[in-house]
Fold each of these.
Amino acid sequence: MNTDELARLLATGADGIDPRAPVRRWALAVGAGVIAAAVLMVTWLGVRSSLVQDLGTPMFWVKFAFVAWLAVGGWVAALRLARPGARLARVPGALAAPVLVMWLLAAIALVGADADRRGELLLGQTWSACPLNIAVLSLPIFAAALWAMKGFAPTRLRWAGAAAGLFAGAAGAVVYAFHCPELAAPFLGVWYVFGMLIPTALGALIGPRVLRW
Amino acid sequence: MSASEDRLKGFLVRALAGDAAAYHRFLVELGAHLRSFLRRRLARLPDEVEDLVQETLLAVHNQRHTFDAAQPLTAWVHAIARYKLVDFLRRRGRGDLLTEPLDDELDVLSTADADAAEARRDLSKLLDTLPERQRMPIVCVKVQGLSVAEAARLTGMSESAVKVAVHRGLKALAAKIRGAP
């Protein structure tokens, strides 16, 4: 087949493209994934009984802003990496900033605390369960994000998979925050970050295989 | 940005709004640019260039919904062409064949080579290997130029089923190229 014939074949009867379709696909994926994660959290772990009291604690909102910021940033990164040739520009910096701020808060808390309380600030009550819980809650969001991305054409597959994983991990952490009682910055800076990095690493690992087109 | 960036982008934007004539001009001109882009990168495999031009055009068509009019067309086309090039070299299993020209950062769209040639791989033969349910709608709509309504009457499918079959058929065609080198 001559290339001009192919051009004619592709152009013949070609419809316009609905510019809202990509937005719908992402909205569907994110909505379904987060709802599934929330149902999983409520039935498996349960909402924390002290949640209403915690709403008055500034650190609860710092924690919430921390994970929500990362979720939004991860989503923006995933949106960009889903399209060929789109630039990340300032997204990596925007993703690093909340982590650095949390580490700064953690350092201040650790320096200001008595030596025998530092271990408690770092490990809390739930350090051994936290990362895995976040990773498990992120799974439905991770699957939905990969599905949404497969409707596009990522060309840097490892990065695209990692972005989908980071978005899922951070959104999973947002959901987990309604169960988790930990509010100390050192705990959040270590175990939340670790939990969010599990799906991120998984995404980088399977991206080249799953996202190929 | 080159003048052809603006020109081609204008064609594509109109094409995405449903202008098939603008889309045809876009694909023909893009094919010429891709030929020159890929020839410089596949200097040691000149016979493969036209196959890869067609493969990339098919990819551009199948992924045209991922184009964001706020982004430069060059970067989008560049990324797709590179992706197809790397995929092709991986299929051949010989990465050393890639020729990276020194003018790598120049626009894809700055040069063109309008001599559309026959590819070695015959896409129309590959089209024949598609399942009937996908092949027939493509032949009606894309080859014979019938309207979707006429194709629907002829095949006994609904109009939306014809559209879906054309869309899936072209995706399957692209997948067949990847699967069978």
Amino acid sequence: MDLIELTIEKAHEGLVKKEFSALELTKAFLDKIKDLDKKISAFITVTPDSALSQAKKVDDLISQGRGIPILSGIPLAVKDIILIDGVKCTAASKILEDYIAPYDATVIKKLKSQGAVFLGKTNLDEFAMGASTENSAFFPTKNPHDLNRVPGGSSGGSAAAVAAGFSVYALGSDTGGSIRQPASFCGIVGLKPTYGAVSRYGLMAMASSLDQIGPMTRNVADARIVFEAIAGKDEKDSTSVEYQIPDTRYLPTGDLSKGDKIQSLRIGVPKEYFIKGMDPEVEKSVKNAIKKLELAGAKIQDISLPRNTDDALAAYYIIMPCEVSANLARYDGIKYGYSDSGAKDLMEVYLKSRKEGFGKEVRRRIIIGTYALSSGYYEAYYLQAQKVRTKIIEDFNNVFKSVDVIVVPTAPTPAFKLEEKSEDPLSMYLADIFVTAVNLAGLPALSLPCGKTASGLPIGLQIIGKQFEENKILELGEFFEKL
Amino acid sequence: MITKKEVQHTANLARIGVTEAEIEKFQKDISSVLAYVDKLKKLDLAGVEPTSHPVKIDNVTRKDEARPWPQRLLPGFLKVKSIFNGSN
């Protein structure tokens, strides 16, 4: 049995049946990281000591014959923008290069209470701003399927870690596709939960009305397990909501040999998501996936969401930098991290610390946001984008009157080459064309593998649901995996 | 097209230092992004309410009552991490 290929369910089963110990499981991953992460660069920080001692605790419980929760002893990786008490948290930024987290994020607290094993912190685009993980201040992460290509971003380190067998699962964050797009590029499953379903306490804020933490896993069942473990209202995040994931099953089990069909399911396919310039292999693979669902009995409906690609992306690239410019004001060279020691007055402390501490993309977005919010431009940019946001939500609501879920590609292309887009910010932004509308509307969406290109690069299918209907998209995802 | 002066001014408002060469690069990058998002100006959205938050929630408050604080060492004092090296 290859321990590093196990899903959460299988690993849990193995631990409970004493086929292997939590220590063996953890060591298998730490060894793999040691051997291979030189090539992939998924991790910024690895924490072997605390991982091994946590694994030992779980083994003790098992040997005492005590029952353990499903995530107990299961190793995971965490995007380095989510705080773990006492562990360095850099946001892949020079400005926080030596910052030690002073407390646990709520999601971390919840996983710790189950006895999860934290292997380390994964690379990302600086402060989660990017679609390739090349904007990390430290190093780029490589795609395990092709080392000349990016893993996607911004949760590229987490996606690569799961794909390379460095951890059973990982946590990422998704502000405008940052879980789904790297999941698609690395051939894994990524869930962006409904806004408010998971507490953001302890997630460094990028764009507060869009950010959500979510699971990145080997299969849909694992995504469900992790989502259920981290979801729920938190008094420390006033935007989180009371939310019990319902037990209801919407679909039959998907055992097609028994003739199960999913007649009751109505799937909307918006024509605007199949655009000119899209990779033909991606288009073919996604259309094939839709065909399979149709053959399984789903009713496929052509729908139109005219504002949800181009206009949504434009609105996103106004709203997000505006929120970024406000959220990142706290990194002033005084309260946190890097401070320029040569500055002669307060103004120079700000200017120099933020110039040297922040990378190009972060500075670019802060300047764009500041510009769009400044007097004389506010109405034309920010207010107009907020109105577009209203229309996008209305469009989704209208479509969801006649369909249960929407199925689209996650990204217009498979993983692109390193440095292919890094000098042209707009072309990098266009990689997010199919993912940002979901964040603007606060909807849940799942990306899961639906095929590969001839050269072996993974392709992702995106299933979008109504707010707080994670259950439905996860169920369809599980069904699709069996087709 | 954003001018160099505007880039310099906005960077200053955002408290971000920029070099001459960077101003030029940012001018080019930011202009191309603004040209892309400018399409939204053409949409007729008169009378549409703006959305700043995707999930409907009202103001969230809690009762203003004192709660026990686990790290309290002495009455009126909090225990925090030490910031000075050496003894004391």
Amino acid sequence: MNAETLKGHLDLLLLAAIQAEPAHGYAIAERLRARSDGAFDLPEGTLYPALHRLERASLLASRWSEVNGRRRRVYQLTTKGHKALASHHGEWLAFARAVHAVVGGLA
Amino acid sequence: MTPTSIDDYLERLHRELRQLGQVDSRLIDEVHDHLADAIDDGIRRGLTAEEASREAFERFGTPEFIARSSIREKTDMRNWLTAVSATLWRWKWWLIAPTIVMAVGTSVYSSYFLPLRYRSETVIQIMPTLVRSEGQARSAEAGEHLRQVTETALTRWQLEQLIRDLGLYQTERAREPLGDVVQRMRRDIGVVTKDASSQFVVSYQSQDPRLAMKTAERLAALFVEQNLRQASSNLETTSQFLDSQIGSLRMRLVEREGQLKEARAAGHFIPEADVIAYDVLRDMYKAILVRREEARTMEGIETRSAGLQFQITEPARLPERPVGPSHFGVTAAGTVLGLGLGLLLVGMRQRSTLSAA
């Protein structure tokens, strides 16, 4: 999947990847790659500006912490982030269902 | 061009960010950690160090690309607004509390503790004098004239005199040098033109209504007096100037007359041009004599009349109601100050939470 297509849904993907448990940037990138079977292959560096933006919007909170003997910035969802994820997810499901209803018939 | 090492990569990223006007040390730190993790990971999967590095850099994206995407995310106005409103909401009590405290505080302070201020005013008419040929005083001229008179009327020396005579600013004089007290007095004095500069208002503000009236009265008198002084000094210089001109003209005239007489006596032919030159000189001498007589007469008739005359049309009155302080204004200023303080606190809170984490 190309980067432009992904970019529109990046917020939803990032929030979903962090939802279960707090994670640092590298772990988030790995989760995205693993869960999508490698389909989500965007430059990993672009995660950080997006994470920072979500944090500025108070959807995420972050702190430095020690993971495997290395200092890392760990991100977690705020209450507002959980709400945003739920609403983005709902919108996505509605959109996906609608697209499927139209396109699915053609297959 | 693939970076040769993490340090090389970070240096390029740093340079890019700096060129775009944004140094972000946290981003650099995180990129460092990410690349180190990715390379370790590659080596664990059996890649050589070189292969692992190349893979990590390829997956991460070029420094130029990352810098640009960082700037793009930051300059998104909508995100910025969301972030600001979210921050404000999060720390809303830090904003609301100081605002309320300051609003209530300044309101109480202005109602119970700020001294009342009274203003007394004198209206002075600017009039052209009788001997002026133009009749009406032009407003630009009157404005300029008033400016000059104001300068001489409100000199430090004059105001010091007033302060001493009327016993103004006693508490301030005990604390501050007299120069500062004079500055303070200048702030309490108002000189404003009205009706297209045909009149002006001299006012004075004080905590004591009686002192306000007395001082306004004295100030008005100062303006009238300074106007007279300026007028007579103008006249003096005019007639002095005319006197010196008359002296030199007279010498030239006598000399030329002598030459003409000599030539006539000797029976020489006198060119018409020389006669004309003599006539011109004589006419000029006559004209300037007339001007001097006029100037002298004016000095004699009325010293107050070089240009514009000041006449007090409304003398200072005892003010009945205070003009200030404006409780609304003070409270509004306090509220704005409290809001500013709140914003500052919110900013500091947010900054400390972001960096403490």
Amino acid sequence: MADAMIDRPVIALRDVCFTYRNASEPALRGVTLTVGRGEFVVVMGATGAGKSTLAKCLNCSIPQFHPGTLTGEIAVLGRSLAGATVSDLAGHVGLVSQDFDAQLFSTNVRQEVAFGMEQLGVARPIMQQRLIEALALVGLSGFEKRDPGTLSGGEKQRLAIAALLALEPAILVCDEPTTDLDPLGKAAIFEVLAALRRQGGTILLIEHETEAAEHADRLVLMADGRIVADGAPATLLRDVARLEQLGVRPLDLDRIGTTCGWPDRPDIDEAARRLSATPQIPARIASIASPDGARRAANDDSRENEPPLLTAEGVEFTYPSGQRALAGVSLTIRPGECLALIGQNGSGKTTLAKCLNGLLRPQRGAIRLRGVDLAAMRLDSVAADVGYVFQNPDHQIFADSVGEEVAFALRNFGIDPHAIASRTEVALAAVGLAGCESADPFLLGKGERQRLAVASFLALEPAVLILDEPTTGLDYPEQRRMMDLLARLHARGMTLIVITHTPWVVGHYAQRGILLENGHIVFDGPMRELFAREELLERCHFRVPDVTRLGHRLGFTPLTVDELLRVVRL
Amino acid sequence: MYLYLDRNTWVHRLHPLVRLFGMVAVFVAAYVVERPVWQLPIVAVLTALLVWTGAIANVYRLRYLFGIGFVMTLLIWTLFYGPDGDPPLLAVGPITVSHTSPVYALGMALKLNGFLAAGLLFLSVTRIEEFAYALSRVGLPYRVGFTMTMAFRLVPVFVDAAGTVIQAQRCRGLDFDRGGLWARARRYVPVIVPVVMGALRRADQMAMNLDARGFQASTPRTVLEPYVMRRGDVAVALLLIAGVVAYLILWWSGALTLRPRGLG
């Protein structure tokens, strides 16, 4: 099938419209797109722009699994998809989705990769050869006998890709494959895609991470079900204002380059050379870095006199499986702090956070809330003071209405029924969901559900709020909205502990950084000092934002693009 | 996380069909026995195999299930089983324990644990792929067999999800230990709803992903590692047949029952 289509586009959509059943608005509105063999196309846009719908059309899961009204023409490898099924496209179009667990069915890696080939009747010798090649391409050679359930998130996603690659699809469609991965996992996926591209594979990648578009052949921008731009990434990425308007986070260097009026897109070293050639800049750095540092230091000093809110003393925790998650962690958190817990998956961040709110009891050491050992407290009395917002809001949402969802915790804690309505109203207003009390929580968008989860804890008026990766799965505008909400709460005096992998979130919002590695705290201090230690962070697989890397070449440590631009524009 | 134990014992290497047959053979043999003493050979063989294969670790994981099942069965049959005309052994108020019932109850408890142990042993030594293959060999369509075996893979996934949901709701003050039975049962609604919703979403995604890997393809399937019936497999199968036939003959002769067959 594939060999006969060399001169034609491998993907051709003409005027495609799709409306999900029971939806009032179309998800795709007249999409026309062609992709040539061997092209690497990145599709970006805000949530609801139609990116995932587009991906699902390419392997026929729309309309087979997601019924609705589909019009227009879709051709893959020169054949119309009218009347085709997902099964018909197995081996031609591979679709990698965000949820890697839903893509794995077998009890070992070898069997997982072979699964699709067995279904398609591939001969044994060919199957064995492809199995070796696919695992080598995704860097999982030697993992053949491992149970997929024991792999890390990144490894699971690479296995899912290998299982599809073994079918030798002409097209690989990846729908936000790195969303649930830590930086190490993300980097590995992008390496796999780069290797596949070198081998001439056609890739359509849907991503929220703008960095993914840098090395693509084409960047397609979508909004409101339409393709609004389609061109070279180097050109489109420089249009900072338009990207922000479309809900795509502009890259640090593009924001700086646009402000400085650079006609091209230099790399970090070239950007540093240009900036340091400006005579005033070194002097400006010296003048701006000190007061800023002094302000933060003063801020910290003022807290030194306050009694600790939460303390951990030599905390050790080992899971029943024998995995040692915390190996003697000690820290002090004072009222009003905003700190980021960072470190790669498995470093102990979530375990530490769960110990801090009493969900997990350490085997050694003690956690104290206002001086009282949590071991002597009931979980519900701790939970009212130390809220814990889980990463996935769908792990808690169950009620018929948004108002009930927020009131649930208040009732559990025996709050006066008269106060429940007012507290619910205040909490929903704080997260931007005022007036949504009677809405069905299951019909809200992911960002709204995440904010609802925050509201259900805010209503309890806790002293500390712990958030486990609150921006995961959200697009850039929703990420901003969530973090701005947290910044407002912090400004009102709430103590925040945020677990995150997102460098720009850390740089923009956190004051203090705690870096964990293998259950140990390897750094605890002001964010700027942590970002200054680029090598330490890289060892823990955390890459500082490009603006910080650029700043280091200039001799200071900016946390945000705005900080650097203040130096540049003075 | 899963019951399957990746070992390389002789039992693991048996043909999947023989392993399935072995489980069914234990079910049949244990089922026809009433006298506890005749359950003992089955218990002995199962225990030896559980220890040999390492599946005894799974028995330990599920020790409460075995323990509660044994005690409850023993209790219920002792208290409520009594063949007509059986003289009483003990009478306390309205409850009368007959002479036969404790022995019968012990047989039933051993039978139940035998079923559990045989199923556990099978799942501990059999991959879901092998299970699906064995089911297809006994005539079940491959897709039906695979879908059935997926349940075994998904149960632990849902148990994990339920654990996370329970933690999330406990953070919102949900106390599962407070109140009477009905109040406690109602408190599980905030756990059940997110777990079920998640399960439905997962099932939908898995169905699509299975199809995308050719699960519904009309082409004849091939297998990466074909299962070959060797002489050892045949020998074990013959041994199992002999064992089941022996138990059936004993049952027919009345040696396994506490009273002659047909007398209730």
